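We close this part of the discussion by returning to an individual protein. The amino acid sequence and the backbone structure tokens for this protein are reproduced below:
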Amino acid sequence: MGSILLKNGIIIDGSAKTRFKGDIAIKDEKIFAIGNIQDKKFNNIIFENIIDLEGKVVSPGFIDTHSHSDLKILSDPYLEPKIRQGITSEILGQDGLSVAPLPFKYIDIWKDYLAGLDGVADDKLDWQWKTSSGYLKRLESQGIGPNIAYLLPHGNIRLEGMGLDNRKADNYEMNKMKEITRRALEAGVAGISSGLIFMPCAFAETEELIELCKVVAEYDKIFVVHQRSEADAIIESMKEIIKVAKESGVKIHFSHFKVCGKRNWNKINEIEELLNEAQSEGIKVSFDQYPYVSGSTMLGVILPPWAHEGGTEKLLFRLKDKEIRKKIINDIKNGIPGWDNFIEFAGFDGIYITSLKTEKNKELIGKNLLEISKLKGKNPYNSTLDLLLEEENGVSMYDYYGKEEHIIRFMQRPEQNFCTDGLLQGKPHPRVYGAFPRVLGKYVREESALSLEEAIYKMTFKAAKLFNLKDRGILKEGKKADIVIFDANKIIDKSTFINPRRFPIGIEKVMINGEIILDTGNRTNKLSGDVLRI
């Protein structure tokens, strides 16, 4: 690995301090010196590559604290949509659902279930890693573009500890799940995650979360959670997670924080009061956010949680059964207390299909559920359930939930940092290709919602501190050289819902562990990322 000198950059170091002009010397993966470095030979280092930046911004590499690259990185380890955003580190294992731990007997059930979230895996993929440690070793053995840290998913803990049953864990099962958690924490996962709208996480009671988080708190790691409600029951939902923090001592981090549905927007003041109260009580609370008024997840979330009990095979049976289907439709129409009803807050015309498990319905990608119902000549309830049945629940979607002023309001909160929450398959949400440049172009340069220093801090050092990434997120002597070089006057996202697979502009170079992996806008195909064990 060579030595590099970056000259004449506008350095924004990630700490939120004011920018300054200077040089950065890099050797053996790390930053060797920062300042005014005049000589080609510096402290007995002869620079093999001197790059004059001509006033471009130099910042730490961006950290995506909510990523769904868990499967994609196995078949496409460079992860170009992320690298071209300036993302140099990702946190996988989100929403309580991922690839490990995974007992062999559940592999087929689980990979079908994950299809709507993380995509359809390559047929040649063997799924033989079994534990989170095994998965991380698999990534190390093949090489990766960005650095990767992993959260232990609550759904996978339940899967190994008690299967897919919709019930309370008994004492033996609870102790087993705590052992699974401890095993993964010892192996270097960054914390645990849960997705309390997804099966089997949704089947857990608050006490189960508290008990698991007591183990996490012992290691000073983090609980990352897609809470039970981001809509009608968001206040009660937040109180549940704050209770988990109080009784376990764990740090809590709300995933993709937002308020869904017009009728819930009046709750924002109360939501902010809850955040303020938690902080005043000494609870460590944070959240991440993607800079869009629409979200994206698996279409199966429109179904009541009980419909998913037992896995995909049983779900498909229920969708086929006429009487059970009537009950599913009735629950969607009338709602269930505490359950986020996506049809209610987004509407059939506000939910769009982004990917499918098979090719047989590919003409439906990019259409909303109301358009699909008209094409199929059916009412939207049955056309949607038929689509889930035909595609064996392997359907992804995006939906509209909020408004711009709320995006900015939460963006300016001290607890906030940025993420993509990007599902990479099919015709994806534009955040997969554009989230971080969008912040710097739209919300910093155009709207002045944040200063450039504040935005970079939230993208880098703040995220690194939350997840205990000790060598990342800041430009400082002795730290790893994860670096983004961009033109602050040009950087902007180009991805749209109509044409999402468009790379941003303005990012010129990306370095990971001292290697240039994006050079003047061209990919180098280097896989210099590390697996980050915490």
